[in-house]
Amino acid sequence: MLRYDPRSGNLAVTDMGRVASHFYIQNESIATFNELLARMPNASEAQLIHVICSACEFVNVKVRQEELKEIDELKARFCTMQLHSSVEDSAGKSNVLLQAFIGHAKPNSFTLTSDINYIASNAGRVARALFEMCLRAGKAAIALKLLRIAKSVDKRMWWYQSPLRQFADDLPGNIFPALESRGYVSFDYTLSILEMNEAEVGQLAHWQRGGKVIQKTIRFLPNIHMECTVQPVTRGILKFSVELSANFDWNARYCGGALGFWLWVEDGDNDRIYHQEYVLFNKRNHPEVMELELTIPAFEPLPPQYYLRIVSDQFVGCENVLPVSFKHVMLPARHLPYTDLADLTPLPTTALSNPLFESLYESKFETFNPIQTQLFHVLYYTNKSLLLGAPTGSGKTIVAELAILRMKNLNPAKKAVYIAPLKSLARERLKEWRKNLGAKLNWTVLELSGDTSHDARQMKRADVLVCTPEKWDLITRGWRDSSRSFVKDVSLLIIDEIHLLGEDRGAVLEAIVSRTRYISDFVKSSSAEKTAGLTDTRIVGLSTALANPRDLAEWMGIDFEPPSRGLGMYNFRPSVRPIPMTVHIQGFPGRAYCPRMATMNKPCYAAIREHSPKKPVIIFVASRRQTRLTAMDLISYAAGDDDPRMFLNDDMEDSSVADSVEGISDAALKHTLSFGIGLHHAGLSSGDRETVERLFLDNEIQVIVATSTLAWGVNLPAHLVIVKGTEFFDGKTMRYVDYPVTDVLQMMGRAGRPQFDTEGIACVLVAEGKKNFYKKFLYEPFPVESKLQERLPETLNAEIAVGTIDDLAKAVGYMNWTYLYRRVVQNPSYYKCAGSEKEDVAKYFTDLVSKAVATLQEHECCQRVERQGLGGDENFGIVPTPLGKAASKFYLVHTTPREMRDGLRRLRDDIVDEEEEEENFVVRVLEIISFCSEFDELPVRHNEELLNQELANEITFKLPDAMEFEDPHVKGYLLLQAYIERSKLPISDYITDTKSVVDQVGRLLAALLFIATEGREGLFHGMLDVTAAVITAKQSMTRRAYATAPFLFQMLGGVVDPGSHTSFAKKVRLCEIGMEDLGQVTGWETVYDLKKASLEMSQDKFVRMLKSAEVFYQPGLVAESLKRLPYLTVLSVFVKSRGVLEVEVQVQDNYTFSNHRGTEKEQRRATVLVGTKGNRQLLGLKSVALDRAKTSKKVVVVEYDGTVDGELVVKVMLDDYVGFDVEVDVAPGGAQLPVDSGKGNN
């Protein structure tokens, strides 16, 4: 029950001790159980009941002489299980009374009634304790029997009786013996009754009219259908992908709000449990499918099969077993993947032979570390692609820099692209390289991510581009465009953390490398470039230690044939860290996540006191809430030791922490910082995060509690790293899932960073059941498998859209460039391929590609066109559709464009039928983008459906009744409305969620505009107004104001920060009160009218007019604010020829934007729409840039569909302001309009 370490005097509890404590079992009982079970390794149910009744808890059950006769009667009548002790013993009497209790006996003796109640109240608890002990010990058969016994005690029925007895209150008692006499006692047999008709069931149960009721009741029995696929990861590890489907009707009376099940994988031959977990089905999610991934050990030779068993924790007899066959499983080949670290003299930085390059490192170090020394020649004197697998902290960034220096030395005009998996890591690398490469070498380093935008000229001038994978994937999709010719100038591609190829975003990395090699091959083979002496684009992959480096190396283009023989592949052992690290792994019990996290707080504090009392500490947790809770507990433990400020490295009064705390906006962080503990997560403002990083780097505070993103982002040193829990809540599956092992290694890698420390310590705190897993596999990495098949439709669509793939054969041929192809050959069973033979692989990829293309066709992203020939798939071409081009151009999921198109058509129909008011158009557009597939994985956390309901009550436009508040799309829809209306959000998580949603809106609205106008879509009636609604939605998102909102609200977005100008915001609301009355007095009913009047008369006269109206609180503020608004007019429209219009537009703008907050661009954009006046068809569209000046004029030439007859209408819309759109009619025959023909609409 306990482990005692005489050296340290520490006591550590065992699994058995925890179970005994949880179920309140005496230590003498545990000793008895151990002794009896050791003598009965294959105990029967009768023997196990004897073990239960031998517990010391029943020793007080005395045997009285006068009771023996009645006990014998009870034994004869109710004891179906053989007794293994005399009824004159406590154990024997307890056994009889326990079986009598299950059989619903009613003793005559008062003392026996009292004893039977005592046994009934304790036997279930003892049986449950024994079950969990045997389950954790891996004893499959005994654990199953004990769980059956425990449930039998709870339900007072035997496991070999009909499961329908659990519904005895709803069914007549005579049907149970009738069914049992016919053999309907097992779960499978009982379920088979559902296949009969009602009359047959009634006859079978001797209840002629009850067949329907019996079948309805059977459907209440919790039946879980299991499906399992086996994927060999290594020769010793199998991955079970399990799907659990709840095939029953949920009855709240019997099931409550949740139902628990025990799931385990057992080896029937050896009676061993290799994995067990408790799974919970909720009424809220019923009947959704639950998906699990289990990591199971394999032993050679593989047995014929394992068994997957699921047993209800509550219902007797409800259990299913699935044999998982290994008949067709082929284990992958063994690898000896590691590179030995050579014993070399460290190279000095002078080996660069370039004083300018040497200056980069003169203040950092004098010699390269052993790994950099071993790679130096290949990096700096060859152009070979390189794969480096090395532990975190091995100086991989310097390796990337050496490759860049080689490239610029060889060809200064070429570019390097560095791909970082996270924006935070990209920003850190950008900051570091701008300081080094930018300042010292005068190179231009640009960041490309979702938060930044640069024009083609800037990117053409750049020397180094720092990108996220998605951004570079999007850019390289258009590599054939003349505006993206700089893509062909890239001669070095550096991919950091390339092992993330095996994670969810891996398909993007795979597409990037495959496309890079294709572009390189294309450029090299083009006739114009043949004489330039070009080489392949060099690819440098940086990673942690890999299990299958050769597959990655070959895919990257590293040659393993003589004479190269794999030169460029380096995969060092995890143990070659420049700074040695000690790892401690601790297991913690507890089924529920939050209580288990709470039990880890004290060990965190103890680890700090033991391993790092004065040195820096980082604690990684899974959520922002956990950062706060962990920090608060650490403070309380420190206070309990009479040293609450122990984590402050200086006196609070003398340190800069006190000054820094004053500038902190987050209340929790302000509190914890005063005790020397920083918080770090995405919910904090950038200023708060930077303050925490600075204080930690300056050793002002000792501890940071951070979410896992810090491991990939900011490079902070620590002596001790504590990984508090290895699970996080996955909003998509609504359950806690494990971090990838690579993430855990990345967190641990923050301990003992070079240049900062001489040693590092990592403590990994895990759930007890995962302790052995992490012990074994923390330093035995899994092979990197491909994730391309999960995003294959998007990947193929991107190539179809740009013309790289135009038939099925080329699509299959494209797969030869991918990493997936190499892994299918090496590990066919993992990908469900029949074998590794050439024919099997060819068939696999033909089927895979055909299925992906069919999926794209189904969603109208591409279409097949017949070519000249004899027929067959090979004679069909594949061409992109407008929807497919939209998916590629705007980086959409393949299902999104059709969802957008259908949403636009519904809006168009409602506009044409006049069923939708104009003021609702924008919200309808927001609804279209909110309910597309892009927001499928927006997290809806526990109880957030209640917060969504509260938020829905705050916004102006109410939700349709059919919408459910736990739907992620509904949450996205609410957040967009709340963003525009500046509603107060309920919790800080919603602020971060809003940012992630708003970041995508620009891309989605651009896609929506493309779909509305591309091809023949615009020729439908009403599409002019639909397109205008999309642009108005863009205006509303930019200014955070609806077209119907008070006009001065536009001053709150972009020009004035509402957070720092709250008094201004109040004044705006006061000013707007009089707008309606003003229209009655002066005739100025819209903001357009006001702006026009302000331009036509002097400032003083305009203010006097406003004052005379006596409707505004501050007329001077209104006049001043109007200066900040633009005034758009259409000077003339001329039909140059049929199908061509010349539109002269003018924007007057008296307010200087360029110096205000540094956010406004030098140009603003406007969109010119041409359509029919009658049925509002859209005929043409053009977006133009206008200079920001007091008066800006531009003649816009718009091509339109000249085949459509009728009067035309021209609508001009600014992209960044609501309510200044101008619409003019165009007379037939090409007449030129007078200057004042335009009218604003607000």
UniProtKB/TrEMBL annotation:
<dbReference type="InterPro" id="IPR001650">
    <property type="entry name" value="Helicase_C-like"/>
</dbReference>
<dbReference type="InterPro" id="IPR036388">
    <property type="entry name" value="WH-like_DNA-bd_sf"/>
</dbReference>
<dbReference type="InterPro" id="IPR050474">
    <property type="entry name" value="Hel308_SKI2-like"/>
</dbReference>
<feature type="domain" description="Helicase ATP-binding">
    <location>
        <begin position="377"/>
        <end position="564"/>
    </location>
</feature>
<dbReference type="Pfam" id="PF00271">
    <property type="entry name" value="Helicase_C"/>
</dbReference>
<keyword id="KW-0347">Helicase</keyword>
<keyword id="KW-0547">Nucleotide-binding</keyword>
<dbReference type="InterPro" id="IPR004179">
    <property type="entry name" value="Sec63-dom"/>
</dbReference>
<dbReference type="InterPro" id="IPR011545">
    <property type="entry name" value="DEAD/DEAH_box_helicase_dom"/>
</dbReference>
<dbReference type="InterPro" id="IPR014001">
    <property type="entry name" value="Helicase_ATP-bd"/>
</dbReference>
<feature type="domain" description="Helicase C-terminal">
    <location>
        <begin position="600"/>
        <end position="813"/>
    </location>
</feature>
<protein>
    <recommendedName>
        <fullName>Activating signal cointegrator 1 complex subunit 3</fullName>
    </recommendedName>
</protein>
<keyword id="KW-0378">Hydrolase</keyword>
<dbReference type="InterPro" id="IPR027417">
    <property type="entry name" value="P-loop_NTPase"/>
</dbReference>
<dbReference type="InterPro" id="IPR036390">
    <property type="entry name" value="WH_DNA-bd_sf"/>
</dbReference>
<dbReference type="InterPro" id="IPR057842">
    <property type="entry name" value="WH_MER3"/>
</dbReference>
<dbReference type="InterPro" id="IPR035892">
    <property type="entry name" value="C2_domain_sf"/>
</dbReference>
<dbReference type="Pfam" id="PF00270">
    <property type="entry name" value="DEAD"/>
</dbReference>
<keyword id="KW-0067">ATP-binding</keyword>
<dbReference type="Pfam" id="PF23445">
    <property type="entry name" value="WHD_SNRNP200"/>
</dbReference>
<dbReference type="Pfam" id="PF02889">
    <property type="entry name" value="Sec63"/>
</dbReference>
